Amino acid sequence: MSEQQAETNLEAAMYSSRAMRRLKPTAVPEPMLIKLIDAANQAPSGSNAQLTRWIVVRDPEQKKKLAALNRLHGEPHIAADVARPKTDKLKRLLDAVVWQMEHLHEVPALIVACYDYEVVVDGMDVYRKAGSVWPGVQNLLLMARSLGLGAAPTTLALRDQGMVREALSLPPTFAALCLIPVGFPQGRFGPVTRHPVEDIMRFDRWSD
Ligand SMILES: Cc1cc2nc3c(=O)[nH]c(=O)nc-3n(C[C@H](O)[C@H](O)[C@H](O)COP(=O)(O)O)c2cc1C
Q: Best mutation site among 94, 155, 178 for ligand 1, i.e. most ligand atoms within 8 A of its Cβ?
């Protein structure tokens, strides 16, 4: 691939990496899953510490445990909005979130991004070094897009670190920061919708 082609592909992926929640149950070939994690592993981390760890959950019983945690924490979080969505756009988003809640255990791979703090952490300390995990998550999402796989970053299932540690046999020094369900998409990729750049940037200092 020429540098020009790589740039075009990367730009196209950035502008069309929507959160794909409705996924087919079809298995994702293992080399593709490894490629996702290898791409994630190329991302930067603070002091180049490289302490992000990845669990690719394919076992049906393990997936059920994560699906149960997602429902446990997710249902109360979205209940009020599901009952009375304020906009059509929010309703569409919530329909997809509910679909994901009901089908999470059928998604072929649930990828969990963890950070190894090397000491036991809890509470807000869990989020202290979270910044070192997210560049890898974004690399993974872009590689998924480039391979034609659907994916979306999620956090609802991970609200109780003790429960996630137990479900995935994580060492006590690990925190799980992002769960990314991955599979072949049921729908089509399309452009993301974001605020126009002129609304969200200023040069030199903030002004209205
Ligand atoms: C930090 C973070 C946490 C998120 N947590 C969840 C989640 O728990 N469940 C979920 O369905 N989506 C979650 N998302 C996905 C966002 O809802 C999604 O990226 C956003 O709505 C934009 O969607 P779009 O790319 O399809 O436009 C999360 C995204 C981020 C960045």
A: 155
